[in-house]
Amino acid sequence: VGDFNNDARLDIVVVNANSNNVGLLLANDDGSFGAQVTYSTGVGPYSVAAGDFNDDSRLDIIVANYYSYNISVLLQYNRGALAKNMTYASGGGSSLRYIALADLNNDSHPDLVAANYGTNDVSVLFDLGNATFRSQTTPMPSSNSHPSSVAIADYNGDQQLDIAVINYVSTNVDLMIGNGNDTCITQINNGYHFVSSPFLLTAGDFDNDGRSEIVVGFDDNDNIDVLFSYNIGSFTIARSYSTGSNPASGGGS
């Protein structure tokens, strides 16, 4: 969701995995939406995020492509119209799943973090401000972890953004602590393991203590777990809450 044509109304962008494109639905004055306009991506687009990648005050789109092992950057050039600008390879067999955007190095440009399920690592792409990115890859501690989702927030209260990673096969959460610059990543394995395979992740400071908590959804049970942060980059034992069958999406701020 974002204002893609600068008319002060929120528009919708959606991933169409089987047709290898994303769809943009622009908002009308009455709260309805126009017909979907589609834009080609790589093969098997899995998730999407929006940000201004070239400092022109227009929202652009970045897409993680599961089957073509790459990331598509689509730049906006005229009131919601998009053009495919560049594709970044994430490595053969990477099978990207979820992506997240935030300014990790405090240069006022949105950086990208991607969970590479197939290659057991996380890609960090630092935006240079002209729609090009510098890539850095951080492996997970386990060679069989298979990270499925990431969430960016301040987990240790130092006013710098960190990265939480949930691993589908090793059923644990890893933390990558940010230093606020391009060499920001130090990895901490919390040693906390879930009973089921974690699939979805989002974050938010639910108790207003200056440290974000994480919310985890699972592939094979009908509840979510909330892990509260304490100390420096550590989480308490999860509190579980029942949901409907197979929770598939969530959001936070």
TrEMBL record:
It holds the Pfam family FG-GAP_3. Gene3D superfamilies: 2.30.30.100, Integrin alpha, N-terminal. Keywords: Signal. InterPro entries: FG-GAP, Integrin_alpha_N. The keyword Glycoprotein does not apply. SUPFAM superfamilies: Integrin alpha N-terminal domain. This is VCBS repeat-containing protein. It comes from Adineta ricciae (Rotifer).
